[in-house]
Structures are given as C-alpha cells and as structure tokens.
Amino acid sequence: MKIKTPWNKPYLLIVANLFCNHQCSYCIQTKSSLDVRLNPRKIDVFAVLRFLERNRIDRSVKLMGGEATLHPDFEVLIEGLLKLYKKLVITTNLNGKWYRDFDSALRVMKSWGPRMQWNTTYHPAWMEADVYIERIRRMRDCGLQVGQVATTDTADLTPQTAEMLDNAAIGWKLQTFTGRSPEGRLLPQTWDDVNLKYPQLYSAKKYIENYHEYTQECEDANYADNVYREEWVSCTTSKFLIGPDDNVYPCHRHLYVGDTHYACGSIHDSEMKDFRFRWHNVLKKWTLPCNTKCNPCDFKSVIIRPTGRMNHAASSPAHRRKAS
Ligand code: SF4
Ligand code: SF4
Fold first, then answer.
1. Whole-number Å distance between alpha carbons of 79 and 267
2. Whose CA is nearest to atom 1 of ligand 1?
3. Paired strand residues for 121
4. For the chain, which has fewer Cβ within 10 Å, the N-terminal or C-terminal residue?
5. For the chain, what is the mean pLDDT?
6. Is 322 part of a structural domain of the chain?
7. Residue 129 lies in a domain
8. How many other CB atoms sit within 10 Å of the CB of residue 246?
9. Which residue of 24, 119, 255 sits with most ligand 1 atoms within 8 Å of its CB, as the best mutation to test the pocket?
10. Is 42 left (phi over 0), alpha (psi -120 to 50) or beta?
C-alpha cells in the first residue's frame, strides 16, 4: 500500500458549542442514543483566547457549532480572535436569536470588517427562504465577506425552494449530502459511495490509497457497534480542534464523542506542558496512536500507518458496550 506524504496545512477550528437552534434530521451531530446538539457545554472564551494568544497554530481560524452565535460570549470571542488572526471564517445558519434584530446584528457584523468571512448554510425546515435571501443580500450590500451560500441536498429542500434560491442570484449552491441518511447512518458508507457519489469531495488520488476496507477504516462513531480498529495505527493529522469541553482534539470523531481519552490536551494548559501529544509547530501536525475507526469527515484528511500492534479492545464486548 502506498503511503503518502503527511498533509501539512493546519486546520485550526473552534467548535464553540454543539447546541443549535435547529434540529436537522440529517445533522452529523445527532447521536443515536443522545442528541449532542442538546449538549450544554460551551468553550470558556477567555481561556481559549489566552491559549491562542500564546499558541497561534495558524494565521487563520475557523469557528462553528452547533450554532456558534448562540454562545453567550460570542461577540467577545469574535473581537478577541480578530485581534489575533488575519482571517476568521465562521460557519453559521444565519438564524437564531443573535440574528433576530437583524439591523443591530448587521451593525455589529459590519464593525468586524472584511477579515471575517461568513460561510452560511440554509436549512429549509427551520427558516423561510426569502428571509435567508434578504439577509445574504443585505450582508453583501454592507460589504461583508459572504463566502459559502449553500444548502445540503436533502429531502427537506423542495424543487420550488431550490428554484427560488437559484433565481435569487445570491451565489447559492447545492451541497453534496454528507450528513446522516434517513436511517440515521453517516454517509458515505462504502468506497463505492465515495467513488460514485462523492468524487468531488474525496479524491481517490489524495486519500483513498491509504485505506483498506471501508468498514475497517471508517465508522460512525456515534452509531456503530464496534468503533475500534483491529490494529493500532499511527495517525498524522493537521487538525487542531478546540471542543466545547475546552479540550483539544485531533479529529472530529473524537471531538463529537467528547472522549477525553483521545484528547491531546486542554486549552487551560496554555504552555501545552501536559499535552499527551506534541503539536509540531513547524510541520503543523500531530502524530499520535489511535485504536478507533475514523468518521467519514475525518478520514480524507489524515494519514494512517499500521503499527502491527493488535487492538484488544476491538474484540472485547465490554469495550464495545462502553463505546457504543
Ligand atoms: S443547523 Fe447545522 S448544526 Fe444545527 S442542527 Fe442543522 S445541521 Fe446540525
Ligand atoms: S485514526 Fe481517525 S479516529 Fe483516530 S485520531 Fe486519526 S482521524 Fe481520529
């Protein structure tokens, strides 16, 4: 099997909170037994800013939720991040209480200027399309940097609404569906899915050669009976993800489950003295041991190497129960 050069572009992301004003059926953050969108945890904004002041990690930072604008210290967070970074990209559903008085919201957004990019997603079950269209237009009229204007291709989107968004000339795009199927499983589910349904998202040239059988490598961490690999791997990842529990994670799979066994460290440790793994400041990556399968949203951007060490958890029913 061909091993590729590790991916070195850092990906610094703050997941401020997982709670959300929407309850989309296709949300990747839905767990079979517990809906993580109801998770009340939220980052300690002052501790995150202190940590990042000391450890910039990258020149730009991304922010998302749940819905990050619902964080009670959202504005303090943005102002702090804009002092530290050249660019800040937020992903938001452009709905929820922070946007309720849109004139006031717009004034604040304008004060943050063009270094902040607004990547928006429209979710048809929870918002009128004309409200979304008007908000996008007004943001652009104010000179805000609006990046993504998109809706995921699901049954929630009627052809009429799609036509309305398309005709609005706001740069709206239909996004390939990578969330949760109506049966509750994360997609893609097989290499055939990857190759046939998602060729624009998962390049076989870049990613796929590093992996064997899809079900041995990728699993829905919130759903599967067995989330463990048969063998430990060494994982190289350039993801530096700050979770709502103030822990730093190497991938979305571990962050969404909130399993602190797989956290690299805590942002309360701003010297990174007690971090279990070392963030390589020059190569911008972690290299860490892992015994679980990846989420589909992670596996395309990590490099894994077999270690030859058998993973006993993989065959232990007790561990399976604990993990599921
Ligand atoms: S808006 Fe996004 S985070 Fe919120 S429920 Fe929908 S898909 Fe999930
Ligand atoms: S192997 Fe997969 S689950 Fe494990 S740390 Fe890497 S990306 Fe995360």
1. 19
2. 22
3. 150
4. N
5. 88
6. no
7. yes
8. 18
9. 24
10. beta
- Indicate the number of domains in the chain: 1
Establish whether residue 253 lines the binding site of ligand 2, counting it when its CB lies within 6 angstroms of any ligand atom: yes
Q: How far apart are CA 309 and CA 322, in angstroms?
A: 22
Cβ proximity of 42 and 61 under 8 Å: no
Per the structure, the complete domain to which residue 127 belongs is given by 9-200+238-280
Q: Is the pLDDT confidence value at 322 over 80?
A: no
Task: Evaluate whether residue 255 is within a structural domain.
Answer: yes
Nearest alpha carbon, ligand 2 atom 3 = 294
Map tokens 């504005």 to a residue.
75
- For the stretch 112-133, pLDDT in tens is 999 999 999 999 999 999 999 9
Is the pTM value of this prediction over 0.70? Answer: yes
Beta strands 247-249 and 265-266: pairing type? antiparallel
The answer, yes or no, to whether residue 30 has pLDDT greater than 70, is no
214 pLDDT above the threshold of 90: no
When mean pLDDT is compared over 80-84, 151-155, 299-303, 308-312, the highest value belongs to: 80-84
Task: Give pLDDT, residue 7.
Answer: 54
Those residues with Cβ within 8 angstroms of residue 258's Cβ, 6 or more apart along the chain or in another chain: 36, 39, 41, 243, 245, 247
112 is a domain residue:
yes
Question: Angle, to 10 degrees, between the axis of helix 102-112 and the axis of helix 129-141?
Answer: 40
Classify 54 as helix, strand or coil: helix
If you measure from the C-alpha of residue 324 to the centroid of ligand 1, how many angstroms do you get, rounded to a whole number?
Answer: 22
pLDDT of residue 248: 98
Q: CA 164, CA 132: separation in Å to the nearest integer?
A: 11
pLDDT for the residue 37: 60
CATH (domain of 260):
3.20.20.70
Q: Which of 15, 37, 17, 16 is nearest to 26 (CA)?
A: 37
Nearest alpha carbon to residue 149 among 117, 125, 195, 184:
117
